[in-house]
Please model this.
Amino acid sequence: MQIDRRVLQNFGIAFALSYLTAGVGGALTELGPWYFSLKTPSWKPPDPYFGAIWSVIFTLCAVSGGLAWQSAHSPELKRRVLSLFGINAFLNILWSALYFKLQRPEWALLEVVFLWLSVLALAWGLWKLSKWASVLIIPYAVWVSVAGLLNAEIVLLNDLI
Model:
């Protein structure tokens, strides 16, 4: 079985862009005194789990992006794939900047609504191109839902609104 070089190239680009997004978000994530002083709910996962969870999610997003790109047979469909992933990447990075860099969980709570909607738009927008690409986004939607609830709980516990 021989794999087309273009397919490998497309998946390589999808992985690079996905991990670039993860890297920028990770660089904005500062776990310093401010973060450790926050009151958190008892059900919050241990901090080391977050990196592992995000690594899986960004890997699934990369595979999803590669599958969607392979299925997009027109310039219009390719623009749709780029737009959906691009908007989502921007909102993902923005959440990290608001929450960790600016130390404004209450602003991040408002923004997480848009992030969640962008994940939903990804799953919905990819469905007609590739059902597998869409299904691979589901863990991301679940995790952003959990993260949004955690964000809300932290805002409430710390009287930030």
